[in-house]
Amino acid sequence: MKGIAFYKEGEHVRDYLLIKTVTRGTASNGKPFLTIVLQDKSGDIESKLWGCTPEDESNYVSGAVVLAEGDIMSYRGRNQFKIRTIRLADEHDSVKKSELVMAAPLSIEALDEKITQYLFEIKNPVIQRLTRALLKKHHREFYEYPAAASIHHNFLSGLAYHVCCMLDMAKAVAKLYPEVNCDLLYAGIILHDMGKLKELSGVTSTSYTLPGNLLGHISIMIDEIGKVAGEMGMAEKEEVLLLQHMVLSHHENPEWGSPKPPLFKEAEILHILDDMDAKMNIMTRAIRKTRPGEFSERVFALNNRSLYRPSFDRDDGDESSAFPSSIEDKQ
Amino acid sequence: MKGIAFYKEGEHVRDYLLIKTVTRGTASNGKPFLTIVLQDKSGDIESKLWGCTPEDESNYVSGAVVLAEGDIMSYRGRNQFKIRTIRLADEHDSVKKSELVMAAPLSIEALDEKITQYLFEIKNPVIQRLTRALLKKHHREFYEYPAAASIHHNFLSGLAYHVCCMLDMAKAVAKLYPEVNCDLLYAGIILHDMGKLKELSGVTSTSYTLPGNLLGHISIMIDEIGKVAGEMGMAEKEEVLLLQHMVLSHHENPEWGSPKPPLFKEAEILHILDDMDAKMNIMTRAIRKTRPGEFSERVFALNNRSLYRPSFDRDDGDESSAFPSSIEDKQ
Amino acid sequence: MKGIAFYKEGEHVRDYLLIKTVTRGTASNGKPFLTIVLQDKSGDIESKLWGCTPEDESNYVSGAVVLAEGDIMSYRGRNQFKIRTIRLADEHDSVKKSELVMAAPLSIEALDEKITQYLFEIKNPVIQRLTRALLKKHHREFYEYPAAASIHHNFLSGLAYHVCCMLDMAKAVAKLYPEVNCDLLYAGIILHDMGKLKELSGVTSTSYTLPGNLLGHISIMIDEIGKVAGEMGMAEKEEVLLLQHMVLSHHENPEWGSPKPPLFKEAEILHILDDMDAKMNIMTRAIRKTRPGEFSERVFALNNRSLYRPSFDRDDGDESSAFPSSIEDKQ
Amino acid sequence: MKGIAFYKEGEHVRDYLLIKTVTRGTASNGKPFLTIVLQDKSGDIESKLWGCTPEDESNYVSGAVVLAEGDIMSYRGRNQFKIRTIRLADEHDSVKKSELVMAAPLSIEALDEKITQYLFEIKNPVIQRLTRALLKKHHREFYEYPAAASIHHNFLSGLAYHVCCMLDMAKAVAKLYPEVNCDLLYAGIILHDMGKLKELSGVTSTSYTLPGNLLGHISIMIDEIGKVAGEMGMAEKEEVLLLQHMVLSHHENPEWGSPKPPLFKEAEILHILDDMDAKMNIMTRAIRKTRPGEFSERVFALNNRSLYRPSFDRDDGDESSAFPSSIEDKQ
Amino acid sequence: MKGIAFYKEGEHVRDYLLIKTVTRGTASNGKPFLTIVLQDKSGDIESKLWGCTPEDESNYVSGAVVLAEGDIMSYRGRNQFKIRTIRLADEHDSVKKSELVMAAPLSIEALDEKITQYLFEIKNPVIQRLTRALLKKHHREFYEYPAAASIHHNFLSGLAYHVCCMLDMAKAVAKLYPEVNCDLLYAGIILHDMGKLKELSGVTSTSYTLPGNLLGHISIMIDEIGKVAGEMGMAEKEEVLLLQHMVLSHHENPEWGSPKPPLFKEAEILHILDDMDAKMNIMTRAIRKTRPGEFSERVFALNNRSLYRPSFDRDDGDESSAFPSSIEDKQ
Amino acid sequence: MKGIAFYKEGEHVRDYLLIKTVTRGTASNGKPFLTIVLQDKSGDIESKLWGCTPEDESNYVSGAVVLAEGDIMSYRGRNQFKIRTIRLADEHDSVKKSELVMAAPLSIEALDEKITQYLFEIKNPVIQRLTRALLKKHHREFYEYPAAASIHHNFLSGLAYHVCCMLDMAKAVAKLYPEVNCDLLYAGIILHDMGKLKELSGVTSTSYTLPGNLLGHISIMIDEIGKVAGEMGMAEKEEVLLLQHMVLSHHENPEWGSPKPPLFKEAEILHILDDMDAKMNIMTRAIRKTRPGEFSERVFALNNRSLYRPSFDRDDGDESSAFPSSIEDKQ
Description:
Strand order of the largest sheet of chain A: 1-2-3-5-4
Oligomer: homohexamer
Largest sheet of chain A: 5 strands, mixed, barrel
């Protein structure tokens, strides 16, 4: 199966898909229609069901698995799924809901093991103990949450996977620039987005919580680091302050949410790797939907850029994996 | 005594003054000179001592009281004190150091009483208890610190005095717009700048601390509110989150240090009153140094504006008080 | 009656309402529909009448009173009235058009009396005479016009009511900061938006006039003050220049229409109080439509912010009054 | 004589010059020095007189004519005159002060005649009468004032000369784009900077007046056009409003002082020609001081650009005329 | 014939028109409709054909000539043609397709002759030879291309016509400011937009090419000038560098595509004339569609300004010519 | 030897140093002084020689080797060398000039070998041949030039060393994100700053050339790639266009000199790695001069940030190597 996210304009689709969200609207002729976002493990796509019946409305709800058939069209520069036929999957269909959920290419166990290895490499005891404590406190959510509500790594275990990719890059950076303090860098990477566990409502149908709206994940995490360090009797340690600063400054400038810019090397590297990994994730997904020699749909999270796929780029391997990275689950 | 801050260009001065800071420089002829900031309770002024001797350097140090005589000149649009003669005050001079320290027009006791009254008016028990606890924890510094290192209310008890002025305005605002929640507004005002107690190094020769440089007073206070609320078992209360938001948003926009804008009425009013009281303090001080019918020196904290003093403005009352506000100490 | 502006999503409505504006559109099925803005004295709401007949078009015109029944829905984050049934009110319906017009909570007489009192307090004869002359020249429009076409205080006598609220706040400010010149401040407040009487087309269906489009209310008022002062032989008085400056600078910065920033205290205070009163009016109206514990619709005039209503905010009193302020008409 | 403004770095000077301004400073060795701006009719240059005596201070005052000898040096990218010898000119020196004043290349009579011709070409009676009345009211100052305090056309009759150059360009533009309304365009050009007659203090030692500081020349002129039109009973004419708009919008955007952008063709052309003529004046003067194949000093009024003079540019003709334009006085 | 671009809201139309583009859409009732852009030599207008049949879809294609009848309406502030009846033109209709194509008012021969004359006036041999070579290399496209895909001079020979207008203005500028180097100025004007021949896909249905998207016309032309100069053995000539700089800087600032601002007079004039000619073209077209005393539709390319047409502007001559300029073809 | 760049405030120095630049100034007492920039292979530092004699002026010239003794002081937040004694080195001093020149930690041969290896890994023949040809054409300068006149990698072979560091990081990135096209990425890195060979005047006393000022290194390289590709008959290859785009976009946004943002993955990565390597070089050098627990001097190239060096950072290893990277010369 190719994956719904990677079909290109004009292609025909007949796939089992999971309904992610449904919104009811009224057309200008007064009749109701449904805007259905359909997903499989490759990503999601929007579709419209015009002139829907009350039966349709009760059938096609968030979480339902359907068999849909139709064509990929382009609407205002974005792909849309024009449904020709749709029906609920039933017991005769050999499809499992869990197979349609978008998830990181590494299992939770693999991610946990990888991050734990990096944790072992942290030598400074204050940094090690604090990071370990925070990771333990939020263990379950940390390995399940997406990294963002919609922009990048928005899939099951997206946050932990994003952290893993950044840690691997960090290791390469530290090798090239040996004066880098790996303790700070690894811990900063592990903690930088942990505030999202309180900012976002959950793993699916992710929205912003009240603390998310009023404080944002950065301030939430400043508070959280302070509290846990306080409980461990380490509130006055410089290391705690440095980690709080790394979280505070990782968006680099005030307009993007960081009241302070990075003020030491490791904070700067954290920002650069966060930015690079997010961009690689976004770009790879956009390019996968684009034919060689063509421009992608406009990508809002990249300042509305439309990306070019070189005409000599090989197109064959796309379907084999939904993920850009080589860090894959071998277990 | 007129007050060193309120002399105008061309006036002659002969006053006891306290040395606030001294910096040694080397002139382009290779000789040393001292840049001395002199103060009395009205404010401060910069002066230069050219061709200083080693004796001068050991005499004129921060904290020394001197008798200086000279003229007020204008240098690059700012007043400067051109010293003709200067000597250390000795036991024969009837001047006390404490009389030369710039301080709020209300005593610490009066400020404490006033703020305590407002605290009593807070009815919501979570807000009341949390605000009271934070005030108690930082009691001594809260009533001694300036409100800023250099921009506004930079004098003994400046922070508490700034809070008092804002509370009085808040009462008037709440009377005019009755849907305002006074509990949130009063508590937000009391707490909004409390993070400065950790951001700034102290009451005199104020500089930025390491937490001040790496986090800033806003993030410091988010952390502090969180910790104290946690210790009181109120971490999950919505009121705590709202107070954290008020602190977070009180500079209104990211460029000025607030990652979130005010998201409810009381947060917005807090921002407006903070801004207005700071501006009134800055403007009044600039106008005091200006003759009717003339423009003031440029004021950096007001986007470098040069303020006009109307020609029909009365000039007589300036000397009577160094302070703009009617809230004066009657005790 | 609750007031159409204060219904929340999901509530049922059956009320007499006044048609404010009607626009005819063509749906994508080629059929006509009407976009009707309905109002009562609490505010207004948009509704759609799909598949309208020629008879509907001739019945439902601006100024007609109707009895409408339906539900409040949310469309793109804003409330909309989904009409189920609608009919013209006739002589059997006990409803008066004047009861459905949105107006200030104070009568014109009360507003006039209040402003006249402040005018009496102005001691400077140039300021007093000029302000009185301008007020007299535009007397009728001044007490009837809204303060803006759509953003804030957009109701009958909105401009005069906005001025009254600002004058009351100004009195409190002047009490706290006694060096403020009340003559300038009161006169500046009375005159600051008077140019809107020429910028806007009228009390209802308010649009921009040719002078409004080509000059704007600020430049219109610079011209108007100059002309009237000239006719009174006071053209060369500094007071006239200061009042012109207060009008010129009251939007504070070039992007918002003020080529000069406020250059004296009273001009700065005028700007702050104008801003605060407008924001309070906008915020109060947005919060009234929002349930405790929820976020309001996005408010364009507040940089698209969505405001939070604390969950412990009382909701009961909203219906009693459509106005945020305590300045109410006791006559 | 070459003209002091057109000497290049390294050249030797021995010329009669007029002292434009003198400022006294104190060097870091405590000794006084004078900063003297020297001018002739080509422009001006800054010089320093180190270690000046009291006699120097009383001799070298604004308005004095001196014979100075020295070298042109470059200081922070700008030319400076390093004085070797300087003395007051006396009766034996055959030099007249009037020959050293920088002035337009056309006499006042020639400028008046030229502008009067354009005035005759205006056919619309409202525009003609109003422009004529305003020109008559300010006749003397209009033909003597500079166009700006320091940026461009800052010489005797600079304003009128700037207007003449723009009128000639306007004629060419109108020929190419025949739908342009010449009445509006010519009148707009004549009036656009007339407010500077009240904004600036006078022809020499030009500074900003109180109306200049508080309103600026644009708002001053809105007021002035309104008043004169009112006195002529034409206050309600659309033509008056259009001319006020042209003045209001001629700086094009709010940051540069125009609250409204140009809203009709003639207002747009006025802006473009004003901008082009000012830039040509500034650029020509900067290039005159620069050798072919080199870059000029940085020009603040051109966003600090440093201009290149092509190496194949002829250098010989510079001395013949201090002015860029072909509009020269043949009388 | 009036020209489809110059009809005003409310007017009735019955004209032969050429279909420029057709887009198929699906209405919210599920039925197809066509968005047809119709043109004649005056310009173009959008129309909708609701409920189109398969026959309609095969008839009304890009390039077809139709006879359409209907009314001009206003939709979101822009004119739209509401079609009542439409049919394909056949052999009985006396209309030629070439008469419906929008083109410059000068023939290709006339444009060529005019530009060749200016080329003769260039005296510097390097500039002359290089400009001539580039013009010869791209001769056919240069005289056929539009000056932009949609913003200004978007018609047959639009680029060459834009160049001609600029050359005529340049001649007037050079006369007024005699130090201008006409060789550089004329050559810069001829070459400034030549990169558009590679940036845009062609004369009709103009879109961006791959080099257009990845480099843009400015960088394309830097490359092209370099290559041709290299082939002519003039790569190291300063003149070549100056012409490359003129192309590079003609959009004036980085945000608009020029990494360097104009650094000599001729580069600055090139920018100003380019800007003025484009604006005149855009403004004249917008005003032609507007009645005297009214505001035009909003013009995106002018920062969304809505232009005013003075009420005393004559309306009669509009129909006679679709072009703003006096440079018309007399041959 | 510690290296002049890594002394900290208050330390005493007695070292052989090379004079990099000398500027003569006149102090405000009228006496001459020299501003001498002294360097060794660790970097450079500014010093002042007050009251210099004519003999000093002829001795201390650019390129001379001296023995200087004095103290490190801080002036306006930057280190300065206060010279106590200075004399020219003579034949008795065992110091070689070449030992005092700041250079990359890898020899030219080592850099060449490393880059040649990466060149071998490029498989696409167009990209390989073009890159090889450009590298060959500029071989000598490419391995000698600094990467910038003053900001980062401003030392002998700085450009080639910067390219090597980026290539190593690129290899790590490509391993993590396997869809990256290494051919484009490696070639883009090698070529991205090659235009600096024409933009900058040379290896020492580096200034901007005429092409550097008028076009900048980005446009110079667009031209250069185009020319060489043309000569090789590959002008129309898509690969050439993609490499030109990578050069064009590598500063990411218009304000920083890139008219187009990166439009494919490899262009984006090039920008990120360029930015990261430059920042690491700048930061490491600033931190080396700073004591643990203190803030560095303000760094202009980092938006004037002052960097913090954690108090637990080891300080001992700094002197062993002047370079941040592990890529060191083992030959």
